[in-house]
Amino acid sequence: MVHTIIIADDSATARMIIKRCLEIAGFEEAKFLDARDGTEALELARNNKIDLLVTDLNMPKMDGKSLLKHVKSSPKLAELPVLVITSASNQAKEDELKGLGAFAILSKPVSPANVAEVLEKFLNC
Amino acid sequence: MSQSAERLKKALLEAVSTTMENMAFEQVELIDNENNLQEEISGEAPADEFGGVDEGATDEQAENQSESSDEAVEDLEQTSVNQVIQNLWTSIAIIKPIHGTMILEFKCGYAQKLTEAIYGEIGDDNLSASTVLDAVAELINTISGRFIDELISADKEFELGLPNTGEGDTPEIENEVISLLFDLGGYTMRAVVSGNDILNLVSEKKKIKENVS
Predict the structure, then answer these.
(1) CA of B12, closest CA in chain A: separation in Å?
(2) How much of chain B is in helix, strand and coil states, percent to nearest 5?
(3) CA nearest A9: which of A76, A77, A87?
(4) Structural domains in chain B plus CATH codes
C-alpha cells in the first residue's frame, strides 16, 4: 500500500529530515506532501486522501496545536492519525496533545529509530 | 564553578551534542569550557538585539519582532551563499516559563559545513543561501528545546519563539549567562544563552530537587 503523508513544518530542513526518517522507517514508497504551516496542511488534508499527518507545533499562521484541533473537530478528518514532532515538548505538553487527539508525540531531533517505533504502532492500528 | 553554572553547562552541552549527532551525524567537541555565568546580576533583562522578548512583552510584540526579522532573512536570501555563510548568527526567544534568548554564532564557513552534513550528498552548487539559513534556524530551534527541557520539570510547559537569523558579526549580547565554544573538524560554533530569568529557572529546579531528596 502506498501511503500519502503530509509533513507540516515551516523549516524545509526539518521536513527533509522527517521525510528521510520516514523513508528509513519503512515508508520509502510513500507520497509526501509538504506544508509550511497549519493552513497549508489543512488545505492539503481536505483535498487529498491522507493516511498520516506529521506536524510541528511552532509554525507561523496556524500552529500545530490549532491544526490538530481543526483536524479532530472535522467530521471528514477526525480519524486522520496525527503525529506531532516538536522541539518544545515535555510530559505536560504530550499529555495535552494526546488529549486533543494526537496519536504520538516525538521530540526533536528525531531519528529513524524513534520514528519507526511510533509508526509501528500506527501501522498496527 | 557553582552548581548553577555546572547545570547550565551540562544542559547546553547535552542539547548541542545530541542535536548535532542526530541532525548532522557529527560529534562535537567542547573547546572552551570557560563559563560566563553571572551569578550576581540584578535588575530586569532588556530586550536584546537578537529578537529576544523582555519580561513584559505581549505575544503580539513577540510576533512583531519575529516579522521584522523575517524581512532581514528575505534580504539575506537574495545574496549568494558564499557571502552569507562566512559569519552567521541565529537566535531564538525563550518565551515560557522564563524569558531569555539563545544565540548560535557560526564563523568561517561552519554554517555551510553543517548544512552539507545535514543534507548529506548535496554539492556546493546546490546549496542555496536560504538552505543554509533554514538549516541553522532549525538547529537552534532543536537545541533550545532540548536545553530548556533539560532545565525544567516535566510538568511545566515551555514555549519558544520563531528563530531569527543574521549575517556578519554577532551583535552585542546583554545579560549573557553562559557561553560555550564547540569544534567540528576545525570549524567553530559558539552557543550563548542570555537572560537573568535563566538563573532563576536553574535555582528553582535545584530547590525542587532538594525538597524531593
Answers:
(1) 15
(2) 45, 20, 35
(3) A87
(4) 3-212 (3.40.1550.10)
Q: pLDDT (tens digit, 9 = 90+) per residue, B55-109?
A: 444 445 445 544 545 555 555 555 555 444 578 899 999 988 888 999 999 887 7
Would you call A90 and B154 a contact, using CB atoms and an 8 Å cutoff? yes
**Residue A59 amino acid letter:** M
Residue A1 CB partners (closer than 8 Å, separation 6+): none
Domain range annotation of chain A: 4-123
- Please, is A80 exposed, middle or buried when counting C-beta atoms within 10 Å of its C-beta (0-12, 13-18, 19+)? middle
Q: Backbone phi, then psi, for B19, in 5-degree steps?
A: -65, -45
**Nearest-CA residue of chain A relative to B70?**
A60
Which CATH class name applies to A4-123? alpha beta
Report which of B10, B17, B28 is spatially closest to residue B110, judged by C-alpha positions: B28
Q: Write down the residue that cell numbers 558579526 correspond to.
A: B169
Q: How far is B80 from chain A (nearest CA, A)?
A: 19
DSSP letter, residue B28: -
